[in-house]
Amino acid sequence: MKKLSLGLIAALFLTSCATTLKVPVERPAELDMHGAKTISILPVIASSGNVDSYESSAIIKFFSWLSTDSRETRCANRITDEITLRVLNSGFFTVVPASTVQTCLKNGEQPPVDAYISATISNFSVTQKDDSYSREENGVRVYYTEYHDNVSLTLSYLIIDAKTNNVIAIKQRTFDNNSDRYKDKYRRPEPVTVLESSIKAFGAQILKELQPYTVTKSIKLEADKTKDPEMKAADQLAKAGNYDQALEQFTKIYSSTNNFAAGYNAGMILLAQEKYDEALEVMQNLASVTGDKKAIKAVNDITIEKYQKQRLLEQKNAREANIDEK
């Protein structure tokens, strides 16, 4: 019984060692930006009247009013900065100053920009929570209290086509973070610092909504169960990035032996090369002949990749067609 268990473990290990190809793939922007080349990020607006419990005292309210600043406003400014820096650093859009767009909108004029982003914070809250505990110190039980803040806000944002004044997208994002624990009840962390990780994640996400981005796609080849040395050689070629030679080898093996892994891997190599029509032809034939679930799933995956590529080309063509008016 022990030998059988070891054999099963060995079999599982072998099947898990299939080669995985790591391929960079450019994805289309999640939103249709109508070929926009210029964009403006308007300042995020803090909500009105939502004062958290910590700022509810008359003194705190008074000084917040004097400075025309608040912890919520600092969060709004940080979100504005994050979006602006992300877009600027990517270099995909020309960024037009928000003041220019705001002036045009105020005067009822056409903003000199293809699109702009407008956002508002709502439901801003900061809640202090406590956690009491005790421990023995020199034979005496000492009691302690530690605190942490929960910071939460909801950001609603619009992406607007400035040329048509049509809304491209209406989106909402919730930020909800807990601070590290602290012992001094009155030395609380800044909410903007507590939300920093979520703000950065939002900046990365909104960039994917606005413009194409690159991901690393994992394409897993089928492990050969026949222990054919030619299959092993083809696998090594694929692993080394010699896709043309690997494809030729896998296709040759499948034609002469009908080895499922060879046919499957030929389709996966074509997928890695972004030759979607050829990949579909190979995989659809394999699925039809074998009825194998992996082949059927691969047909669906290749179809999705082909659609993504078509969207990307459409977006690029729309940008090329968008000639800026001087």
Question: How are the SSEs placed, and which strands pair?
Answer:
Layout (H helix, E strand, L loop, with lengths): L1 H14 L4 E8 L10 E4 L16 H10 L3 H20 L3 E2 L2 H9 L8 E23 L2 E22 L4 E13 L12 H4 L1 H15 L2 E8 L8 H11 L3 H15 L2 H13 L3 H15 L2 H29 L5
Parallel strand pairs: 2-3, 2-4
Antiparallel strand pairs: 1-7, 4-5, 5-6
Helix pairs in contact: 3-6, 7-8, 8-9, 9-10, 10-11
Low-confidence stretches: 6-16, 49-69
Mean pLDDT: 88
Shape type: flat
| SSE succession | HEEHHEHEEEHHEHHHHH
Seen as an oligomer or otherwise, the chain set is single chain
Rg, rounded, reads 29 Å
What topology, given as strand order, has the largest sheet? Answer: 3-2-4-5-6
**What percent of the residues sit in helical stretches (DSSP H or I)?**
40-55%
Main β-sheet, in a few words?
5 strands, mixed
Number of helices: 11
| Strand proportion | 15-25%
Would you report the number of β strands? 7
Describe this structure in words.
There is one protein chain. The chain is of the alpha/beta class and 326 residues long. Helix content is 48%, strand content 25%. It is built from eleven helices and seven strands. It has helices at 2-15, 58-67, 71-90, 98-106, 191-194, 196-210, 229-239, 243-257, 260-272, 276-290, 293-321, and strands at residues 20-27, 38-41, 94-95, 115-137, 140-161, 166-178, 213-220. The longest helix has 29 residues, at 293-321. The model is unreliable at 6-16 and 49-69 (pLDDT under 50).
